[in-house]
TrEMBL record:
Residues 623-643 have a biased composition (Low complexity). PANTHER family: SIGNAL RECOGNITION PARTICLE 68 KDA PROTEIN, SIGNAL RECOGNITION PARTICLE SUBUNIT SRP68. It comes from Sporothrix bragantina. The gene is SRP68. This is Signal recognition particle subunit SRP68. Pfam families: SRP68. Keywords: Cytoplasm, Nucleus, Ribonucleoprotein, RNA-binding, Signal recognition particle. It is found in: Cytoplasm; Nucleus, Nucleolus.
């Protein structure tokens, strides 16, 4: 029957050279011709037969022209409504109440004819296929949705347009030959109308159209003209393509896994349009589908990460474990972007911050940022090593066999320890990671609502002290490697004080939510980690004190004492203490590169601009000297001409003209 193609082609041909008034005139002539062919036309001055438009299933099975009769009748009423709407669209007052009611009545009449056609085709005696029945339903719902649009009945409009969208989306994937027609209708007509109706119902703009259509069909009862039961329509669409009303999330775009198999309590392959988010004992219902999808994808990514870390176990290097966090960080960033976009949309609509929906989005944004920063801190903790880097890990030992290309030798058993330079470099990398963690904690404190939460602020302060203690321990170990025992003792004591202050706060906030055997790391520090670091720092403090005492009790050797004293050549401006001069320390030996005082460079530059008599001897100074003698003696003395001096050259007349030619 090709109902959709017949309607679309008829409209395109008429609107190509005219408007809806032209389309209505063409439909009137076509209706008269088809009625004459079917012998249901009203005779001249005859009584109109109202039952002429009432077709039956048996008639449709005999002749498809009865379907055309119903379509042309519905299209004529639709064209009349659109012509009136276009005629009054340019008025300054817009469409008045009487005109609007007339337009709605014409659209209702068109919808009744289309609904009657849909009911007739549902009968098996009509011989219609499943695709024809769905197209008839979609056409009836399209006209009913247009009438509801003019009535400004947005719930009814959304339900009907959602039914049309679901049917045409399913048919576009099932019939590739006519997919272009269905896609044009979806893009040009249905999706903008769906968006506008959803906007009037105050739905978030970021909600995907499949979610809007599914919710509209689920909430619709008997208001959809396409079918008396929306559940039957949903089942018909799912038979053709189950993915139309069940969009996949970004985490399951490949279709390899579903959320039902990954996390219990979620819908398989589908993210629910609403989701309850718990943040600091406060439950927030997220109605934005994009945010809910991002949170579900984050849960799925964390489940995958935990499974990967459990499978790898202790064989995975810290860098490999940290690389596994990349997917979680990407998905958490998507959640942050989704919340920000939703807040920006509400701001653009002029909704104040005191609005409940805006407050819920602010809570969701704080929770999303907290999760993202928590995952970032967990990645840094994995990179530092076991127990957050408190334990020193020995690097790979270097043997003679490894330097000889892996050949076995007797010296292979004697492995060299790691060089101090490499140890210092690894400690420096840890300090950089601790600085990044502390900076992330400062960012958490600046999130909206965190400063007002006293318990959370105290927990963050205690966590910051924990990482400050780890940073001080790493720096203390670097001082121990360089032989500064006193500096190492001071830093270890500072670290011990910090972790002692942080221990009560972290133990009080340790709720045990995190699994004991879970390898995932985040911003929360367990009481076991705090206790381990406290015991370690207590032992390191005793060790550092012992090293300082041993260093104080040992007298300085002569070489060590001389190494700290300056040479006599460096202290010539000072009187030696006690009048005794150390003749064994006259100069620094072996010599080393040192800075030495030199003449500033500006004196050399100034020399070029100073005119001294010595620079012009026999030249410019001679006339000046002659003038001085004549003025003092009162006599003029002619200088003797030197035979070696050449006579002065006579001045040549200046040439005129261009380049001295022809003059």
């Amino acid at each position: 029957m090709d109902i959709t193609q017949f309607v679309v082609s008829s409209r395109d041909k008429a609107l190509l050279y005219g408007d809806y008034s032209t389309y209505r005139t063409q439909l009137a002539h076509r209706l008269l011709n088809i009625r004459k062919r079917l012998r249901v036309a009203t005779r001249h001055r005859g009584k109109y037969n109202h039952n002429a438009n009432g077709i039956k299933a048996e008639q449709v099975a005999e002749d498809v022209s009865y379907v055309r009769l119903q379509l042309l009748t519905a299209e004529r009423a639709f064209a009349q409504a659109m012509a009136m709407k276009a005629a009054h669209a340019s008025n300054k007052k817009g469409i008045t109440g009487h005109t609007r009611s007339h337009i709605v009545s014409r659209l209702d009449k068109a919808a009744k004819y289309a609904a009657h056609l849909s009911d007739v085709l549902q009968d098996e005696a009509s011989g219609a296929s499943d695709g024809d029945r769905l197209e008839a339903r979609a056409y009836a719902a399209l006209l009913r949705g247009a009438a509801a649009f003019e009535k400004q009945a947005w719930e009814l409009c959304l339900a009907n347009y959602a039914a049309v969208w679901a049917i045409y989306s399913a048919l576009s994937s099932a019939t590739p030959t006519r997919a272009d027609i269905f896609r044009d209708l979806l893009t040009d007509t249905l999706e903008p109308s769906l968006r506008y109706a959803a906007y009037q119902l105050k739905m978030p703009r970021s909600k995907p159209i499949p979610i809007i259509a599914r919710e509209a069909l689920a909430s619709a009862k008997n208001n959809v003209a396409a079918t008396p039961d929306p559940a039957v329509l949903v089942s018909s669409v799912n038979k053709i393509d189950p993915s139309i009303l069940q969009p996949k999330t970004a985490a399951t775009a490949d279709g390899s896994e579903s959320l039902e198999s990954a996390a219990p309590g979620t819908v398989g392959g589908v993210v629910a349009s609403t989701r309850t988010l718990t943040w600091r004992s406060r439950e927030v219902k997220i109605e934005d589908a994009t945010i809910a999808s991002a949170w579900a994808a984050l849960d799925l990514a964390k489940a995958r990460l935990e499974a990967q870390l459990v499978a790898g176990g202790a064989r995975m290097a810290p860098k490999d474990k940290a690389a596994a966090y990349d997917d979680v960080l990407t998905v958490s960033q998507d959640a942050v972007d989704a919340t920000k976009a939703a807040i920006d949309d509400l701001r653009n609509e002029g909704i104040p911050q005191s609005d409940p929906n805006m407050q819920l989005l602010y809570i969701a944004r704080t929770a999303a940022n907290y999760e993202m920063i928590s995952d970032r801190i967990g990645r840094n903790r994995v990179l530092t090593g076991p127990h957050d880097g408190a334990v020193v890990q020995a690097g790979p030992s270097v043997t003679k066999a490894s330097r000889n290309g892996g050949k076995k030798s007797k010296a292979q058993a004697a492995a060299r320890p790691e060089a101090p330079g490499r140890l210092l470099a690894r400690l420096k990398e840890k300090v950089v990671l601790y600085d990044g963690t502390l900076q992330s904690l400062e960012t958490v404190k600046e999130l909206p609502g965190v400063a007002a939460d006293v318990e959370l602020s105290e927990q963050l302060d205690a966590t910051a002290k924990y990482f400050v203690a780890l940073k001080a321990l790493a720096i203390a170990r670097s001082h121990s490697l360089t032989g500064n025992a006193a500096n190492a003792l001071a830093l270890v004591k500072h670290a011990h004080e910090q972790v002692t202050e942080a221990a009560p706060g972290l133990r009080a906030t340790d709720t045990g939510d995190q699994k004991k055997d879970s390898p995932l790391r985040n911003i929360s520090v367990s009481s076991a980690d705090v206790q381990f670091l406290q015991d370690l720092l207590q032992a390191e403090l005793q060790r550092a004190r012992a090293l300082v005492d041993i260093e104080k009790q040992q007298p300085l050797s002569g070489a060590a004492a001389k190494a700290g004293a300056l040479a006599l050549s460096e202290t010539l401006g000072e009187y030696p203490q006690g009048g005794a001069v150390d003749l064994e320390n006259i100069v620094t030996y072996p010599p080393r590169i040192q800075a030495m005082p030199i003449k500033p460079i500006f004196l050399d530059i100034a020399w070029n601009y100073i005119d001294y008599p010595s620079k012009t001897a026999g030249g410019a100074a001679a006339p000046a000297a002659a003038k001085a003698v004549s003025s003092s003696g009162g006599q003029t003395a002619a200088p003797a001409a030197s035979p070696a001096t050449p006579p002065p050259a006579q001045e040549q007349p200046a040439k005129r003209g261009w380049f001295g030619f022809k003059r």
